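Protocol step 4 of 6.
Sequence for Transposase IS200-like domain-containing protein (Desulfitobacterium hafniense) entered exactly as in the expression construct, tag removed. Do not edit the line below.
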Amino acid sequence: MDNNNHSVFLLTYHLVMVVKYRRKVIDDTIALRIREIGESIGKNYHITFLEYNHDRDHIHIVFKAHPNSELSKYINAYKSASSRLIKKEFSHLRHQLWKEYFWSQSYCMVTTGGAPLDILKKYIESQGEKR
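Step 5 output, structure tokens:
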């Protein structure tokens, strides 16, 4: 759990970002650099990585955020900076990617959480009942 002056919260998300055209260009070295960039940028958005892994054409991140974290701005900044830096630092990738893009425009982000949705629904439905 995290907190600030007026609240206690635990906000976790699972983010999947895919390489443009599903090109299989991510190796362990590139994946490590992508992670470093994401963690560095995340500090400005109160985002902390909890888990990170990759395949050849996509990455998975589980991260926690604050209620005031601007998630879409973070993701856009992360994709932009990592695309620019990866292509600069690993110039051999330019042959496998078209134009200036590294990441696909789309991404998948879902919330994660403690209790399953049906348990939460039952809890909320039971509020106000006499025991």
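Step 6, annotate. The CA atoms of residues 21 and 104 lie 7 Å apart.
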